[in-house]
Amino acid sequence: MAGIGRVVAVGLLAVVPVGAGCGGQSKSSAAAPTGVLHVVAAENFWGSIASQLGGNRVQVNSVITNPATDPHDYEPTAADARTIAGARMVVVNGIGYDPWADKLIAANPISGRIVLNVGDLVGIKPGGNPHRWYSPPDVQLMIDSIVRDYDKLDPEDSGYFAQQKTRLEAKGLAQYKQLIATIRHKYSGVPVGASESMFAPLAQALGLKVLTPPTFLKAISEGTEPTAGDKTTIDRQIGQKQIKVWVFNSQNSTPDVKRITDAARKRGIPVATITETLVPASASFQDWQSRQLQEFAVALAQATGR
Fold first, then answer.
1. pLDDT above 60 (res 2)
2. Which residues have CB under 8 Å from 222's CB, separation 6+?
3. How many helices (DSSP H) and strands (DSSP E) are in the chain?
4. What are 44-68's pLDDT values in tens digits?
């Protein structure tokens, strides 16, 4: 999506008392009950997973919860600083996606805090594709790492966290995993188009072949102008129906993306949508992803007759 985070005012980053009221986009920032770990996730897709793994031993607050918010350009509030100030663990995406979170963490240090950076975990540096929550293998790595970190902070409840992990993997994520396996089995190799790089990790897991120029995907994701050559290539792919399905991020519909999406519909190419953050905001990670996967499956079936 457009841009990388704006500079945050120094006054906002100052340490502020934990327990003061929290507004804005964060969920309740009230101090966690005694004996309960206070965890903050920069984005609600990681927050949903952290919350399910923590159960009643962890209180998770997510900063980005509004589907209308661009995480790249988010400007933290004083309430966000209060939320992070008391967190024993903070989950950030990294890879240049949420640099505002790093500033808040640095300005509000506490001893023994664990910062789980997804980019560091999966080995992707700034400039790479930051949308790791769309990579099923990386989601599993995050599940494993979150539980390991919970064990470090609360070793007495390690057995409980292991149970929560088993429940999420075996039951919570069952439909999500099954949909991925089914789509890969039925539609592996099918050519598709996408509006930005967010879809690329999932397309790889599904075995789909993204024909859209990588430079176009990156440009739209980073809020820069795509080249005329890339736009011409996509127009040709749609005009000649070289792609079977067009996938676009409905939270980042630039004029170019809107024009291409409209052209795909007019050409009779099925269109599927994805979003950057949980929709609705109250959804779990797996319900949100499963709904999108079901939409992909319908679009692929329409396009291929399979």
1. no
2. 2, 3, 4
3. 13, 8
4. 999 999 999 999 999 999 999 988 8
- DSSP helix, strand, coil percent of the chain (3-state; round to 5): 50, 15, 35
Asked if pLDDT for residue 33 goes beyond 80, the answer is no
Q: What is the pLDDT of residues 96-148, one digit of tens each?
A: 999 999 999 999 999 999 999 999 999 999 999 999 999 999 999 999 999 99
Residue that has been written with the tokens 């075996």 in this structure: 170
Choose among 61, 60, 46, 58: nearest CA to 121: 46
Query: Each residue of 242-297: pLDDT tens digit?
Result: 999 999 999 888 999 999 999 999 999 999 999 999 999 999 999 999 999 999 99
The dihedral of CA 271, 275, 281, 284: what is its sign?
positive
Tell which residue, 90, 53, 119, has the closest CA to residue 284.
53
Distance between terminal CA atoms of the chain?
33
Beta strands 114-117 and 89-92 are parallel
Place of tokens 């400007």: 75
**Residue 213 in tokens:** 């120029």
φ and ψ of 27, to 5 deg:
-75, 180
pTM listed for this prediction: 0.88
- CATH numbers and ranges of domains, the chain: 10-172 (3.40.50.1980), 176-304 (3.40.50.1980)
